[in-house]
Amino acid sequence: MTGIGGMCEAHRGVGLTRRRALFAGALLLGSGCLRRGTVPAREVLPSDTGKADRRYLVKGGVVMSMSPAVGDFARADVLVEGRRIVEVGPDVKAPDAAVIDAADCIVMPGVIDTHHHQFETALRGALAEGLVTDDGRAPGERNYFEEIIGKLAPAYRSEDVYASVLLGALSQLDAGVTTVVDTSQVIHTPEHSDALVQALKDAGRRAVFAFGTGKKGNRVPEGPAPAEATALRVR
């Protein structure tokens, strides 16, 4: 329960109620438990994944190629060699390829998410009816910048960052999102940044690490390069 106590102490005097602190703390502690049972994706993939001579056939799926030159198919196969798609069409012949049964599945290129805050995965639903910012039209309404960025994000430990980012990444992979630009506002220390980058790597997909301070409109200080303190936080 030390995580909950730490959160209450960190936000004393800034309007965070005990109920909200307990709720947020439970979410973070719950996500932290995930780390102990998680095996990095690179450790469970076949050892020859991506090698030039590896062939596998994604068979019998609804293929949406997103390419007019290739077309779409109600039922077709996709042959992959190494890291390249070499053939798409009905009844592809590849007797030496490993088969992945795609019946009743949609087969399509991986989705690219160009803006995500994966460190907030543990906070899903915490501000479902909140505003983005205090626009002055609804006095007293909870909003994202005050609740999430101002109160909860500063309480994240490095292990909370790792668990939330990894859970978010694996959830996205399960939904077909294979590339992400992950924008973080929890670069409190080098350890926080290292944990976030490690989670992106352990998820085993393409990722771009972007960051902001979470202050002054969520921008890093202006100038030709980030401020020295910010640079140190991301090594």
Helical fraction: 25-40%
Strand content: 15-25%
Q: Count every helix, treating DSSP H or I runs of 4 or more residues as helices.
A: 7
Q: Unreliable stretches, pLDDT < 50, 5 or more residues? A: 1-44, 216-227
Q: How many E-type strands?
A: 8
Largest beta-sheet details:
5 strands, mixed
Order of helices and strands: HHHEEEEEEHHEHEH
Q: Quote the distance from N terminus to C terminus.
A: 31 Å
Assembly level: single chain
What features would you describe in this structure?
The chain is built from seven helices and eight strands, in the order H-H-H-E-E-E-E-E-E-H-H-E-H-E-H. With 235 residues, it is of the alpha/beta class. It has two domains: 2-38 and 112-233, no CATH class; 46-109, Urease, subunit C, domain 1 (Roll), CATH 2.30.40.10. It starts with a helix and ends with a helix. 23% of the residues are buried.
Give me a quick take on this structure.
With 235 residues, this protein is of the alpha/beta class. It has two domains: 2-38 and 112-233, no CATH class; 46-109, Roll (Urease, subunit C, domain 1), CATH 2.30.40.
